[in-house]
Amino acid sequence: MKDVDLSFIGCGVMGESMIAGLLREKVVEARQISASHPRAARREELSKKYGIEVFENNADAVAGRHAGRVRAVCLCVKPQRLSQVLDDLNSVLNPAQLVISIVAGARIEHLAEALGTAKIVRAMKTKERMCEIFCRRSAASCLSRPRI
Q1: Distance (Å, whole) CA 10 – CA 37
Q2: Residue 8 — pLDDT band, cuts 50, 70, 90?
Q3: Residue 106 CB neighbours (<10 A)
Q4: How far apart, in whole angstroms, are the C-alpha atoms of residue 96 and residue 7?
Q5: Furthest CA-CA distance within the chain
Q6: Could you give the CA distance from residue 88 to residue 133 in angstroms, rounded to a whole number?
Q7: Sign of the CA dihedral 70, 61, 121, 48?
Q8: What's the start-to-end Cα distance of the chain, in Å?
Q9: CB crowding 31-55: b at 16 or more within 10 Å, else e
Q10: How many CB atoms lie within 10 A of CB 68?
Q11: Given this model, what pLDDT does residue 65 score?
């Protein structure tokens, strides 16, 4: 998946778990991942630990250095932050990008309407390991298809 860049919006425990799984299993390289987090200390921690580029602004994580290459945006925020995140991404997301949501209670229909795309996958997890398994087994086949 050398031609696929991923953007993680929100990098708490779940977002970090997905990033760690993708890098550990060598599905992607660190240079292919961008992320966002509101706290400077957390951005620095993630950047040093994984070698990824982490932005303060959600839109920058999608449209920054990786502009035009991000094929999937992973929404990894708490439900109470979703409305602001959708507003942030509405103007930068393009219809060709896949949105993967692990946001509890976020309905696909709501995400599709707010973001203007029908390419949405909702992934649920019960343990961090399930998220890593998703990244290893599902992301590679889903993102490597020519038409998503």
Answers
A1: 5
A2: very high
A3: 19
A4: 14
A5: 38
A6: 29
A7: positive
A8: 14
A9: ebbbbbbeeeeebeebeeebebbbb
A10: 9
A11: 60
Residue 82 · residue 62 · CB < 8 Å: no
81 close to 10: Cβ distance less than 8 angstroms: yes
Q: Say if residues 50 and 125 touch (Cβ distance below 8 Å).
A: no
Element (H, E) at 54: strand 53-55
**pLDDT tens for each residue of 105-134:** 999 999 999 998 889 999 875 555 555 555
Residue linked to tokens 């929404």: 75
The whole domain housing 125 covers 5-144
Place of tokens 């998503």: 148
- CA pair distance 53, 76, nearest whole angstrom: 16
d(CA 29, CA 40): 23
Task: Name 5's bridge partners.
Answer: 70
Q: Which CATH number characterizes residue 107's domain? A: 3.40.50.720
Q: Express each pLDDT in 28-49 by its tens digit.
A: 999 999 999 999 999 999 999 9
Query: Structurally, how many domains does the chain consist of?
Result: 1
- 36: phi then psi, degrees, rounded to nearest 5: -135, 150
